[in-house]
Amino acid sequence: MLGKVLIPDGEAASDPSWTLLGHGAFNERPYLGAAGSRQFVNKLRMTNSVPIGTTTDVTQALVGTNEQRALLIMQNNSTATSPDFAPTMYFGFGTQPVVGYDLALPPGVGIVLDVRVPADAIYVGFGPSSGASVLIQGVIKEGGVTDPVGDTTNMTDTAQMAQLVSLLKKALNIA
Length: 175
Fold this sequence. Notes:
By secondary structure, the chain is of the alpha+beta class. The chain is built from three helices and seven strands; from the N terminus they run H-E-E-E-E-E-E-E-H-H.
């Protein structure tokens, strides 16, 4: 549920104006193009969703190497009632994680990687847990673009490149 609140579904998630700076309203999406239709840069699709639970084999990658991965969501939804405690999940990129060393997600915590997304295979490991009320659960979700070349090209159609150049010129005091 939290992911649906923070990350819009469908094409709205890849609407370039969703995070456009300088217009005041966070979610203001102007209509562009002919007949008032919205234009979208990316056609981001959730391509894989892998549940994590008590039967997860920590010796196998949860998801394999994926050079087209453009979005990665990892969540630890494990729960326990006091005095029991749920495990922290540790994630390894390209290798099995080392508990206490690799990326740690405590119970109830998730992370979204969407700028520099690792393409490596991803493994999970579990920290200590205790008690009969422990429920180990989590998820990894991947997203990819349908046409990376075309999506990059479309940046000029929505004026993102022009805006980026303008901001860089302003920051570097170039006329």
